[in-house]
Amino acid sequence: MSLFVIEKVNESEVEELQSISRQTFYETYCSMNTKENMDKYLNENLSIPALEKELKNPNSAFFIIRDHDKNIGYLKLNMGPAQTDIKDASALEIERIYVIKEYQGKKAGQQLYEKTIQVAKEKMLKYIWLGVWQENPKAIQFYTKNGFEVFDQHVFKLGDEEQTDFLMRLFI
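Below the sequence we write its predicted structure tokens.
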């Protein structure tokens, strides 16, 4: 039984998407990064124009998870050419999966993960992959618990800082 409701985001909901995107990114990383780098990322990557462009990409999909009328997290999936690194037609990328702090540990992230598995199986894909900051042990533990394994790494640029992400993969 689902605890929360997950719905696909459409272009008319870009402001809702921006709000939950900015809130969750800030909550997750503000204590480990400079204000300048956080502001630069939020203003460039999570602006209305940037999110509108992503929402229009037919190879990407956003989902918001809600507790009644409250947005508590979201998920961004990429297929084919929309993937950030690998661009494998038989793979699905989790580019973003975030839950507000208040709902972490309450199965919202697990429900978003299960949505990912559902999408991958519907599309008959072979595996799911993602990048996760090596300084985020909570997220690494979540993915490891769900069967993901590290297979590589890449650089994620946050403002003027280059950070290392582990690339993790799960065959389905």
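Residues 14-29 form the longest helix (16 residues).
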